[in-house]
């Protein structure tokens, strides 16, 4: 379950006991034999709103998400217009963050798949930040939970030779204010994946 409010919280049931100092790990409160994993990010909705408010053409008085959604969905995956272009990611923390434990700031990077080079970029705003912030936030959830999920074959595949899906949760539920936003919900699903929806 992903709670998309002022902060972002990620909760997951798992049969695996793999505690880590970067997240909370506890016995499941309702199901014996399962555990519960929890990540808390202070800069969820606050960071998304900050990017929304910087977009040219956003209605400042209404703080509408329409322009943000339009730009986020029109921007290519990882801001990569061509396969040879570098990929773009960023960290957006208007306040000091819990996971990772960092001071407030914004950091943007390009990644060049052909060379493996990760290059810092200026912290100045670009409209692509509407998509980049969503991909970066949800990629952090996926990477931090990856040790607790396993590769499985998609339930609709019937042949044993089918390539397994990458490790991902079985189902993802979105709650909180951001869950009603179609662009946020769509990109969350694209990044986190989920075998059953």
TrEMBL record:
GO terms for molecular function: D-xylulokinase activity. One of its GO terms (biological process) is xylulose metabolic process. Residues 149-169 are annotated as: Disordered. The keyword Transferase applies. Residues 1-193 form the Carbohydrate kinase FGGY C-terminal domain. It comes from Friedmanniomyces simplex. GO terms for cellular component: cytosol. This is Putative D-xylulose kinase A. Belongs to the FGGY kinase family. It comes from the Eukaryota. Keywords: Kinase, Transferase.
């Amino acid at each position: 379950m992903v709670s998309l409010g002022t902060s972002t919280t990620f909760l997951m049931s798992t049969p695996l006991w793999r505690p880590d100092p970067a997240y909370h790990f506890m016995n499941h409160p309702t199901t014996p034999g399962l555990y519960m994993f929890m990540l808390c990010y202070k800069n969820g909705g606050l960071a998304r709103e900050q990017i929304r408010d910087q977009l040219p053409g956003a209605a400042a008085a209404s703080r509408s998400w329409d322009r943000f959604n339009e730009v986020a969905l029109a921007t290519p995956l990882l801001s990569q217009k061509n396969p040879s272009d570098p990929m773009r990611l960023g960290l957006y923390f208007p306040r000091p963050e819990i996971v990772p434990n960092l001071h407030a700031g914004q950091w943007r990077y390009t990644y060049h798949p052909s060379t493996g080079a990760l290059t810092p970029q200026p912290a100045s705003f670009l409209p692509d930040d509407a998509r980049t912030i969503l991909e970066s936030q949800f990629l952090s959830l996926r990477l931090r939970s990856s040790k607790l999920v396993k590769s499985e074959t998609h339930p609709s595949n019937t042949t044993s030779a089918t390539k397994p899906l990458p490790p991902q949760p079985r189902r993802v539920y979105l709650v909180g204010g951001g869950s009603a936003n179609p662009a946020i919900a769509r990109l969350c699903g694209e990044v986190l994946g989920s075998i059953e929806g």
